[in-house]
Amino acid sequence: MTDFTQHDDFALTARVLGTLFYFAPDSAEAAPLVSVLTSDDWQTQWPLPPETLSPLTATFKAKSEESLVAAFQRLFVGPYALPSPPWGSVWLDREKVLFGESTLALRQWVRDNGIYFEMQKNEPEDHVGLLLLMAAWLAETGRHRECEQLLAWHLFPWSSRFLDVFIENAAHPFYQALGHLANMTLAKWSSCLLTPVVVKPIFE
């Protein structure tokens, strides 16, 4: 069976989702993707059935009193408590801390596999956006075994719960749609995964 991470659309979708969860919507990295998702042309390039994507088209384009930049600040930066923290250790550590044991396990795994992934910010490596970008990079460089391990061991154990809470609290149509798109896409990846997903307790 061919590893699904070898498909070109895996790297594309992982990079798109990672960029939008990690970078501000007005940044050079994310702004072109925001423009694409607020048009009608992106559905044909996304590897999910059109009937599941069509409801998201209007949601991505819906107006909101809150600007997209302000919504990103509220959801990913602060200064107030984030409604759905994007770091794995906040969900996997009993004390809900940054740089928890799961972060250290990820860091050790990265070291053991000789992965050199350049980060633009000094923050925990288990940010959902960073993990998606790392998965895309691993797939693009032909490291499919490590890509599957990253997903099964370090992202999927907590990403579903993160996305459920994110969607519930997004309070901005673009990020609600992004959450749903990510949820459906990661669910498809999970169903194709050859590496068993590690089951870990979630702390809220």
Description:
The protein has 204 residues and is mostly helical. The chain has 9 helices and no strands. It has helices at residues 8-22, 31-37, 50-61, 68-77, 88-92, 101-112, 128-140, 144-169, 173-192. Helix 1 runs antiparallel to helix 7 (128-140) and helix 3 packs antiparallel against helix 9. The model has no long low-confidence stretch (mean pLDDT 93).
Number of DSSP strands?
A: 0
Alpha-beta classification: mainly alpha
- Could you give a short account of the major beta sheet? none
Provide the low-confidence segments as ranges. Answer: none
Helix content: 55-70%
Strand content: under 5%
How large, in whole angstroms, is the Cα Rg? 16 Å
For the termini, the CA-CA separation is 37 Å
- Number of helices, where a helix is a run of at least 4 consecutive DSSP H or I residues: 9
Mean pLDDT over the full residue set: 93
Topology order in helix (H) and strand (E) letters: HHHHHHHHH
- Large-scale geometry: globular
Any key phrases for this structure?
204 residues; single chain; 59% helix; mainly alpha
Helix and strand arrangement:
Elements: H1 8-22, H2 31-37, H3 50-61, H4 68-77, H5 88-92, H6 101-112, H7 128-140, H8 144-169, H9 173-192
Give a quick summary of the entry.
By secondary structure, the chain is an all-alpha fold. It is 59% helix and 0% strand. Helix 1 packs antiparallel against helix 7 (128-140), helix 7 runs antiparallel to helix 8 and helix 8 (144-169) runs antiparallel to helix 9 (173-192).
